[in-house]
Amino acid sequence: MDGLLGRSQFLGEAVNLFTDEKTANARSKVVEWLNDVPNAEASTKCDLLVKVQEMILGSCVELLEEFLEHILSLAHDANADVRKQVVCFIEQICKVKWSYSHKL
């Protein structure tokens, strides 16, 4: 019986380690993409926002709160396509996580 409990604890720790590593990898990619946004062309900015959206809403929703302000600040971009992409991102946030609607 102890072997089963010990194995269960080990598996739980392994799952946590994998989850932490997955989140850390996602965070580093999102940071890289958001750092590339200010110097990019308008179409590239939109592509980067789509990547950020897919990463955060698709696999690491826990990163949303961390990067929400950075994403919302792009709503003031000079290019209309970038602003439209931010609006689409906001719509998807509300669909995935309704609790964030009051922050938007």
From TrEMBL:
Cellular-component GO terms for this entry: mRNA cleavage and polyadenylation specificity factor complex
Superkingdom of the source species: Eukaryota
Coiled-coil residue windows: none
Gene3D superfamilies cross-referenced by the UniProt entry: Leucine-rich Repeat Variant
Protein name, as recorded: (Mediterranean fruit fly) hypothetical protein
Organism: Ceratitis capitata (Mediterranean fruit fly)
